[in-house]
Amino acid sequence: MKKKRLFRWSTSIVAMMLALPTYGQEAAKKDTVSTVAKTETQNVMLNASSDNGPRNVNIGLPASIGGTTILENGLPVTYDFMGMSPLRAWRSSSSFNKFSVLGVAETAISIGDVGVSVSTHSNRGTEKLIRNVALNSNSFGLLRGDFSISGPIKNGYYYAVSANINMDPGTFDAKFTNYLDQTQIYKGVISKKYNKGKGEFAIQYKFADSRGVGSKVSPYVYNLNGTVSQYKDFKIGRDSYLERSGVANIINPMTGKEEAWDQMKDMGTTSHVIDIMGNNKLENGMVLDYIVRYNYAKSGLYNPYYSSPSQNPGNNDSTKYYYADGTQNTDDYVQGVTVLATPKIPLNTIMSRFDVSKKAGNHHWAVGLSEWFYNVSDYHLASSFMYQEAKANPQQLFARISPSSGAPDYEASRSYNGALQYYDGWENKLAIYATEKWTVNKSLQIDLGARLEWQHVDGLWYPKASRDAARNSGVKNNVVDKDLTNEVKKDWFNKAFSINLLYKMTNNFGLLADGGYTEVAGKLSSYAGADDPSISPSQIPSTSGGAYYNHPLLSVVSKATYIQRNNFKNNSTFARGHKQTITYDIETIGWTTDMILSPAKGFKLHLLLTLQNPEYKNFTVDLTGVPGEDAKHDFSGGAARSVSKTIIEIDPSYSFKTWRVWASARYFSKEAANYPNTLFFASRWETFAGVNYKLNKYVDFNVNAVNLLNQKGAQGSISGTNTTTADQAAQLDGKVLTGTYMRPFTIEFGTKVRF
Questions:
Q1: Could you point out which of 130, 144, 292, 606 has its C-alpha 20 to 30 Å from the C-alpha of 490?
Q2: Over the stretch 658-670, which tens digit does the pLDDT of each residue have?
């Protein structure tokens, strides 16, 4: 069906800067530190890969598989992204009245996670009737509507209601669906203010239904200089590489039955979330904030994993590829795909957080308690292997024909459940944490933070020995035999500490320093695979120091940074699709300078320069006995994969009367595409621009552009090359590979109405 091409607007925000601390900024609101912090808060949503969630922030460590942590009302949107992605139940919308970015230290103390987090707080009602409507689209046919209304009821009661609907076709025409992201989120809040406004109690209910396929990959010709070229007539980012049927053919690992799962309907996510929250100013000057959440969800996943395309031998009798009707395929290349599919699995989460704080003289302290409980019932991920055409909107192919019937031999082609995952059980996190903001005098502020967390995991997993035993007893296709599952019981005691110093030497100049130490362990989902991950806490120490200067024409912060993480776990793929949990350390020394220039009325220029040198430490991989490998490898001293050493951000904006014009450009230097550093992706620019027009106090219009340079940049890693030598890498020059890419050039526009 031919889609009507529309346009949409997206919130105009530029690049977010990490290296500055968030603790200690309140005491310097008129200084550069808070000026730059405001910039990073406004700019977290500009994302060159997707416009549905916040960007991943490069901190010199390997990015979390789950991406940037997202908080709603002080708690993570989801407990474990492996079971449920937060973007299945959260989108940036007018239902939030507070949006901020938490730095590394604050994230570690408040939720025990590593990296930067995005914090959002729901509108709990307003004194006057307020209504917001936003309609957005883009040049590929996006349909997005955001509606919210809030106001008073009576006798201190208030309400807020919102709806966010997203129908996104992506940037290519997939044959099996018109919209690759179909998400609906509805929220309702009732609140009560009491004790002359000193206390507030609120209940929020949220329903979310989200289904979609997030895979964005393309075949391209890889050049040894790190650039990529178009493969034949396949347009990178504009043509679909998803198999056209939209069906995952699997063997259900819980029943042993062959089933066909619809990629949109059978593997989406629905969730029901209830938040009970409030705050109360006590007579002794203390303030109590609290939230208790219950989240019931049924969450699934569809994720095709693409290997490198292989050359089609054509008329070679040993291997031929056929369509379902028996016709032979004679294209130059065929694409192997491992289909990973999880149906809607029941998840139950109970999370709570209680904070008590008080300002007393030069001190502002807070003490908190959090309790998180998570239960998952028979989580399973089925897998199958298939071949498809290496062309736009590909059809499925079969590697052999059944000699008895002359029809495609489906089972021989699909290799069911070779990457089966399974776990069942629950886990619990109980933590106490405390912060102290101490204004020693008018020049010096010291911020302290500490977190002590007990984590318990209690469940079942399905190790390789059990899978082999089940197979030897006649169980086919790696079907789960629950009688052979093993118990996993773990207790970890995780700790986090932080200190931040702010010293104002003059009204315009000062010094900054901070240090931190964080421990994180694994989760029940770490035991999803066949090999024992041998989880133990990972230690992440960090420190930084620098200076800031504030002037009406120039605000600048410059800091040297150090961050290290040991015992990092990652499930990686090697030759012939072999997957193995690996462990290594990583260390980064860097320097970050962030400045805002205001040379003329209405004009601002934000500049960021980050220089860093992330290196692997203690990184050895034993692949002895693995077919196609059979060796030990030492990657210590190499540059971290998929992390740039130089990052530059340039963000000018100009406001005049009711207009605002802005642009953003981010430069990323070349990135290693594999562990041995024998393959690289070339440097790239990510570019954005926009115009905002305020018609009156009720109506705004916005027009934005994404990827102005229309770069065809590749990112991430190259499949199957994690032990590729320099000689082997040279043979890949000019070869067809498959990988992720930047969003193609897109025009977005929309309008927002307040009435």
A1: 292
A2: 999 999 999 999 9
